[in-house]
């Protein structure tokens, strides 16, 4: 029986876990398409059955018009042949021809590494689902988080129910169980798209952590914290909860798996297992038609 072609859009924890679980079933041939791809060490478990192509959904998360220019003199090159085949266009009589593509989830069907259209597309685009053509989910919004990772350890994991610094700031310490320091947080800023570090917030985070757990610095101030790095993250929150369902858009079966907020890592396997079941259901529907 021929393998079903599946394109997973998005290479965050939801996309990669979904791809991994699909790849464990021999009936699927998987392509992961994303703007940002993780390192080889993350993709290694997928290697036996997952083909990682050099074809990604260009600017998929920025959602903007993309111009593809095909020059007549390039038609015999590998790149020219590939684009001509995918876009089904004739060469221009002059120097170039512009073909404007709307960034739409439906385009992902053309990104399967086999060169054939995908049977199913799995949408794991997180925040990009807000503006991605074919989805445009207005329930999506970012919740900005900022953290400080330090080498200090106090053999404790704790948090407080609130802070005196604002309703959108929180306090927690998470020591990494296998070593690597302690993560200090943080913030919970709804609708904030800012990806730049806020130095004042970083100071407040460290001060709150030391006040809550003086053992972190041996009873000394924040100047005795050994900072490894600071981080910013935009949690892909969805009002109404995570979306895991299937739908047909313009004749294409789409399985959605996005909107996990700040618990994408913890829920990745359970949500991805459901997404895999939905992929199977769409293909079962196809076979009956």
Report on the architecture of this protein.
This protein has helices spanning 13-23, 40-43, 78-87, 199-212, 264-288, and strands at 4-9, 28-33, 66-69, 98-101, 120-123, 140-150, 157-159, 169-175, 182-187, 189-190, 227-238, 243-249, 252-258. The protein is α+β, with helices and mostly antiparallel strands and 289 residues long.
The end-to-end distance, rounded to whole angstroms, is: 17 Å
**Largest sheet, if any?**
6 strands, antiparallel
Oligomer: single chain
Radius of gyration: 23 Å
Silhouette:
elongated
The pLDDT mean sits at 78
Beta-strand portion reads 25-35%
Return the structural class: alpha+beta
Number of strands: 13
What are the key terms here?
single chain, 13 strands, five-stranded mixed sheet, six-stranded antiparallel sheet, alpha+beta
SSE layout and pairings?
Layout: E1 4-9, H1 13-23, E2 28-33, H2 40-43, E3 66-69, H3 78-87, E4 98-101, E5 120-123, E6 140-150, E7 157-159, E8 169-175, E9 182-187, E10 189-190, H4 199-212, E11 227-238, E12 243-249, E13 252-258, H5 264-288
Parallel strand pairs: 1-2, 1-5, 5-13
Antiparallel strand pairs: 3-4, 6-9, 6-10, 6-11, 7-8, 8-9, 12-13
Helix pairs in contact: 1-5
Summed up, what is this model?
The chain contains 5 helices and 13 strands. It has helices at residues 13-23, 40-43, 78-87, 199-212, 264-288; strands at residues 4-9, 28-33, 66-69, 98-101, 120-123, 140-150, 157-159, 169-175, 182-187, 189-190, 227-238, 243-249, 252-258.
